[in-house]
Amino acid sequence: MSAVASESLKEKAVWLLERMMESDPVWAQYPELKEKLEGVKGLEDAVAVATEHCANTKDPKWVGRLYGGGSEASYLAEMIVSFYNKNVHTYVAGPLFTTAEHAIINKVLGYVGWDPAISAGIFFPGGSYCNLVSYICARHRRDPDVKQKGLTKPMKMITSIYSHYSVDKSAIMMGLGLDSVIKIDFEATSIEEFERIVVENNVFCLNSTFGTTSYGNLESVKKFDEVMKKHGVWHHVDACVGACALFSNKYRYLTSELATADSITVDCHKLLNITMQCSCVLVKEGKLLNECSTVTAPYLFHKYGNSVDHSQRSFQCGRKADGFKLWFCDAVDDLDKQATMVYDRAVDFHKILAGDERFNHIYADSPTHICFRVRGKEEIDYERAVEGLRKRGFYIEYYIDFFRLVPVNESFGEEQLRGVLDEIYDVVMKEC
What gap in Å lies between CA 9 and CA 3, rounded to an integer? Predict the structure, then answer.
């Protein structure tokens, strides 16, 4: 047995797992955590601090985020990736992990309805990064000279007023500037107005969101298709939330419009409940992933005659084998069951909210998010309400003036929902 795979490592791993499984979703007093970290020395102290002050995301009371505690299969995949510690910046550095990434990308492309011989994809650390790369591909198609000469003329992009902030961040990183992001209401904007905006602003990309962060609504821009084709506007779909439906035989029909897009971002660490991070970008015209980022680096990029080498698809060098995690979970777990469960429970939970007179049920057509307000109180301090709930061990989120929960963990059923609703009502009426 090698020193790396020693009995000591196995004993520590089992002991650590037991400690983590026993941890509770306690409320962490954030200002005091700095003091908790001071003076920590040794394995016992370090593990104690971690397990005592990290919320257990697998607990049924954890419903405030778009991700859960992670499936068992994804834990095992994470162990494999971490133990072998392989880089997937080139094929030769991680042949098995690279091949697995290639295989699962092709499978997801098939779910979308794209041809793997033409389309391509790659895993990056997070949906925001995937969105950024999509916009770079869009800019490259509009003006390939930017890669060599830089931006020589202004160009802008359009997004929804409900889009993720990563659109703005991407504009900053691309050197476009925040003023280059035009935000509109897709439903309220006419086709004629949309075309005027495109023409007057040299718009190169439209970003839509398939499952918005706050409401979970699925934005449709189908009415703008002809204008986008006419003026060569790239359509990117930020489907970090909603693309979970691709893995559900029952709900895949919801994704039918994705096939008309030019690129798609998928976050498998959200509703599919795979451990963080597991994000990929899919590009219909796959060669653009290479064209916009390929550079010469003979000391690293060698030709081995392998078609699954993804080295020139990526702007970064070191890259974790996140694609292997999805491949592993697809082989070991039932992703269809997980994806279908999220949507099925949302349907059931909407019915419960609609019948509870204590709450005002809003955005009832959201396929994944449960959004509501408490009746009987005109003004609510939502930040105080959420803090009060966390002190009781419940992790709920709010957005401006309503509560939001997303049923990602399998352990969160109807009984748990009714319990959470009781706690929310009690906190709001007594403490806010």
Answer: 9
Under 8 Å between Cβ of 190 and 223: no
Write out the two tokens for 108. Answer: 């997801």
Q: Which amino acid is it at 31?
A: P
What does the DSSP 8-state code read for residue 237? E
- In the DSSP assignment, the letter for residue 23 is -
Determine the 3-state secondary structure of 186 from DSSP: coil
Whether 288 and 140 have beta carbons less than 8 Å apart is answered as yes
Question: What tens-digit pLDDT sequence spans the chain (432 residues)?
Answer: 444 556 788 888 888 888 887 776 555 555 577 778 888 899 888 888 888 888 888 888 888 889 888 999 999 999 999 999 999 988 888 889 999 999 999 999 999 999 999 999 999 999 999 999 999 999 999 999 999 999 999 999 999 999 999 999 999 999 999 999 999 999 999 999 999 999 999 999 999 999 998 889 999 999 999 999 999 999 999 999 999 999 999 999 999 999 999 999 999 999 999 999 999 999 999 999 999 887 767 666 666 655 677 777 888 888 999 999 999 999 999 999 999 999 999 999 999 999 999 999 999 999 999 999 999 888 899 999 998 998 888 888 898 899 999 989 888 899 999 999 999 999 999 988
The rounded distance, in Å, linking the Cα atoms of 222 and 258 is: 10
Q: Is the pTM of this model over 0.90?
A: yes
Q: Which amino acid is at 168?
A: D
